[in-house]
Amino acid sequence: MLRGPRLSVLMCLALYVSQGWCGCVEVDSRTEAVTGHGFKLGCISCKRRGEVAASAYVEWYFQAKGESDFVQIYEYRDQTPAILHEQFLERLAWNGSKRTDDLQDGSLYILNVTLNDTGTYRCHFYRTLFLHIQDHHTNATKLVQLSVVEEANRELTSIISEVFMYLCIVGFQVGIVLVLVLCYKKTAAAARESEREKEPLDSKDNCAGIQVDE
């Protein structure tokens, strides 16, 4: 059974995580793919209230280059994927949140990219927050302007996005360590103070015992 400083540290960590510091970072998707290779269409929508239970589903739409309309190509609902356009049959794979209905990452992975995949991709997040009074519905939309090239050309924006993502992850981990250290120091100091307060009482009890024996 956990007691004292260890239990307090765990409680502090739980509080820290419940306040929304869950490590979700909204990073923009890369925008350049190479023919014949795979490509990740990034779409992240972080839940603002981490302590509230929720569920979400995701829809993806595609507007081909030179076209004016969007067509739905994919849906992920109730942990079930569905490819809805013949151009992408057997070429789309879910690359987002797994084994949960509380989706925050709705990314897709395109297999064997072709020049015809150039265009605008639109990701829709539909989220339901299960509040005590009544459910609250929200939605978010992300756009990805994808260009397809025959040879890789690393974009500066993608490099910056990746660096930012790693910095956020490192910062989150450092934050957890700092919270644990501060909580441990605080509880340890409280424990020492409690021990000091008990010492005079113990001394008086011992003296009283000696007088009675005499």
TrEMBL record:
Q: Which residues form a coiled coil?
A: none
Sorted alphabetically, the Gene Ontology BP terms of this entry are: cardiac muscle cell action potential involved in contraction; membrane depolarization during cardiac muscle cell action potential; regulation of heart rate by cardiac conduction; sodium ion transmembrane transport
**What is one cellular component GO term in this UniProt entry?**
voltage-gated sodium channel complex
- Stretches of Basic and acidic residues bias are at 192-205
A Pfam family matched in the record: V-set
Instruction: Indicate the segments forming the Ig-like domain, all copies.
Output: 5-123
Q: Which PROSITE patterns match?
A: IG_LIKE, PROKAR_LIPOPROTEIN
- Cite the residue spans of the region called Disordered: 192-214
* Entry keywords, A to Z: Cell membrane, Disulfide bond, Glycoprotein, Immunoglobulin domain, Ion channel, Ion transport, Membrane, Signal, Sodium, Sodium channel, Sodium transport, Transmembrane, Transmembrane helix, Transport, Voltage-gated channel
Q: What is its main location?
A: membrane
Span of the secretion signal? 1-22
The answer to whether the entry has keyword Ribosomal protein is: no
Under InterPro entries, the record lists: Ig-like_dom, Ig-like_dom_sf, Ig-like_fold, Ig_V-set, Na_channel_b1/b3
The GO terms describing molecular function are: sodium channel activity; sodium channel inhibitor activity; transmembrane transporter binding
Look up and give the membrane topology term: Single-pass type I membrane protein
Compartments reported by the entry: Cell membrane
Q: Which family does it belong to?
A: Belongs to the sodium channel auxiliary subunit SCN3B (TC 8.A.17) family.
User: By what name is this protein known?
Assistant: Sodium channel regulatory subunit beta-3
Annotated source species: Lepisosteus oculatus
